[in-house]
Amino acid sequence: MSEHPSKSILLEEKQRVYRELDRVKTDFAQRGWFPGTSGNLSMRVGEFTPERFAFAVTASGKDKAASTPDDFLLVDEKGAPCEPTALKPSAETLIHCEIYRQTGCGAIFHIHSVYNSLVSELFWDRRSVPVEGVELIKAFNIWDEEAVIDVPIVSNFANIPLIVPEVRDRLDKRIPGILLRKHGIYAWGRDAFEARKHLEAFEFLFEYVYKLKLIQGR
Q1: 4 a known binding residue?
Q2: Which residues bind Zn(2+) (predicted)?
């Protein structure tokens, strides 16, 4: 069997990804998107096949408003550390693994906000958040006139492996995001720039949908 992709990742490449993740982390922390050390970020590094890949992910339990040498670690397609370390990957790393496996994307950003948590509960019965005709849908490269999308919502279990099959079944490759009920959004893209763009668009759309319901009184 050929060596794992993580073995051929250059130190410089790993450091570049860590620096990019640190910039994103600082930006999102300033926006208040990591309350109580919640949320997690990852970027894929090196070669990819659905069966074998590696990515950098935020370490568990860290203050994301601070920058330290221990903020990130490299893990494999099973979410296990690729290098000897005392750091623990985010508890939700298995969800990142599944999204990478299904999409081959380059970066995944997960945050907790009031609006994404609210709409995930408001629309739980239909298991998706409907968005109709809003300009920001174009951020997902959907250019239809008066486009309609449904952002999938999946169950939120304390036992993370129970969430993974639902993510696998409900993920819509046309929509670069998925909500966990009363928990938060996972948004992804080809790289950090696109994942951030998608995340910002989702947050705008969720606030729009929530406030529209208030105005309509239903």
Answers
A1: no
A2: 110, 112
